[in-house]
Amino acid sequence: MCAAFALAQQPGQQASKADGKEWWRDAVFYEIYPRSFADSNKDGVGDLMGIASKLDYLKDLGVDAIWITPCFPSPQIDFGYDVSDYENIDPVYGTLADFDTLAAEAKKRGIHIILDFVVNHTSDQHQWFLDSMSSRTSKHRDWYIWRDGKGPEQPPNNWISDFGGSAWALDPTTGQYYYHMFHKAQPDLNWRNPAVKDAMFDVTRWWYKRGVSGFRLDAVDTLFEDPNLHDNPILPGVNVFGDPKEENKYNSKLPEVHDVLRELRKIADEYDAVLIGETWTTDIDELNRYYGDHDNELQLPMDFLFTTVKKLSAEEFRKQIAAVNLAKGWPAYVISNHDIVRSYDRYGDGEHNDQIAKLMAGMHLTLRGTPIMYYGEEIGMKTTPPSRKEDVKDPIGIRGWPQEKGRDGERTPMQWDASENAGFSKATPWLPIPDTHKTHNVATESKDANSVLAFYKQVLKLRHTNDALLEGSYVPLNEKDQNVLSYLRVSASKSVLVVLNMSGTRQTSHFDFSKQRFSQIHKLIATGESSAEGTVITLGAYGVFIGELK
Ligand code: NOJ
């Protein structure tokens, strides 16, 4: 019987804690870029009531939590990642009353709301910064990082901003430089100042009391800087903006970050909330640190290692999955987001893109961990970067053109139907609608049993009702196979086999489960010509087979 299966508890894989408090373990998260999801007030920009109008769609899709990227008042230089008031809603997205309506409607459907907390910096239009820059002795002066230049027209050190150029901007009024890791309109907060910590912690309480179930913490790596401002080591070459490349040794991933995360977690625990981290880790040790020594930091540090796999490769994905399964906490997987080329294009070969989108879903949604989807992934939305500099909206693209075209391409409006504006808005959308909306949209795909959307729904439905997929351990199989990635998910009552053909040719995979006393594989979901004969699985190009061992 299944219970005899020897591999039910793999080393490093925690047993279930899905006792209601850890609702986020079994949940499927869905990232919404609010500008681009649904426009309810006909101004060409998405908004909160637009999101509210799509909650039934999300519920039906199988989404349990939505992460809304910043919707707070903002000059929108970095489209919301420059917050000028943490405790309100930007008029372009609606009002606090709209937020309350959205929260109530989401709650009715059992959908949690996660907000995006921009912790590293504010907008230069935030009252705190306006006061900070008003004089060297202002109340909020020390809420940001101010320093004298090294000499006339020389910034305090060699740190380069992620958005290009020096990370220091001179303020002519007070004659000092302020530090900005990102755009100069995004001054870094000084997290060494206890008043900053208190104010930011209070922001989280304020939203928890309003019904928010957690936060995605933006750019957590960069909260602290070396107070002595050592120069960063210079690396060979230049970046896309033409600046010297450097190692962010003194302005990123400083250990003090973890003290803040522990404090944020304490507050989150009071509200049964989840903290998700924008954690660009390079290895498992770094990822582990974000969980904390005693499960006391982030519950879900996002694992971005998948996004570094440049092309479909069973071997590469197997390696990444194995690594994250050894992490001391519950994995959180991402394949696309608003900052990177969509997985549809990263892995698509131009010919089998939809099949490959299903393949990626077959993997993303059946791994041991919490999947975080990105809007449009479920309909096979394409990345469509601007073709002319004058059309670029993203500050990175404006500065970096043509080497860096920016992130507009992965932020185009959600494609609801085949009409002119894709059912996103009655007005001209803030970013153009890609032509592919005529074939890849919710309305058309809802009528097609073979669509990418239909496949997502099928797998999500299975995932929600199958305890092996929810909580089972991960057992890699056929680890030498270069073309086919296969694994089992094993719980006390079920064993589910997932077989993914990462090649464009037909493949046959042989399995032997006789020791575990299984002789049959019962098909649950399969794409293309994939099928099972005893314990032999045949897969079409980029085919997916998911089955239960019997
Ligand atoms: C990471 C966000 O995902 C990105 O969109 C933003 O530009 C930077 N942090 C700065 O907040």
Please tag this protein with its features:
disordered N terminus, alpha/beta, 8-stranded parallel sheet, 550 residues, 5-stranded antiparallel sheet, globular, binds 1-deoxynojirimycin, single chain
Report on this structure.
With 550 residues, the protein is an alpha/beta fold. The chain contains 14 helices and 21 strands. A hairpin with a 4-residue loop joins strand 5 (168-171) and strand 6. Helix 5 runs parallel beside helix 6 and helix 10 (353-364) runs parallel beside helix 13 (452-465). The chain is globular and about 75 Å long. It starts with 28 loop residues before the first strand and ends with a strand. Residues 78, 81, 118, 182, 218-219, 278, 338-339 line the site of 1-deoxynojirimycin.
Structure described in brief:
It is built from 14 helices and 21 strands.
Sequence-ordered SSE layout with sheet pairings:
Blueprint: E1 29-32, H1 48-53, H2 55-61, E2 65-68, H3 96-108, E3 112-118, H4 127-132, E4 146-147, E5 168-171, E6 176-179, H5 194-209, E7 214-218, E8 234-238, E9 244-246, H6 256-270, E10 274-277, H7 284-291, E11 300-301, H8 314-325, E12 332-334, H9 343-347, H10 353-364, E13 370-374, H11 395-400, H12 442-446, H13 452-465, H14 467-471, E14 473-477, E15 484-490, E16 495-501, E17 507-510, E18 521-526, E19 531-533, E20 536-539, E21 544-549
Parallel strand pairs: 1-2, 1-13, 2-3, 3-7, 7-10, 10-11, 12-13
Antiparallel strand pairs: 4-6, 5-6, 8-9, 14-15, 15-16, 16-21, 17-20, 18-21, 19-20
This protein binds 1-deoxynojirimycin.
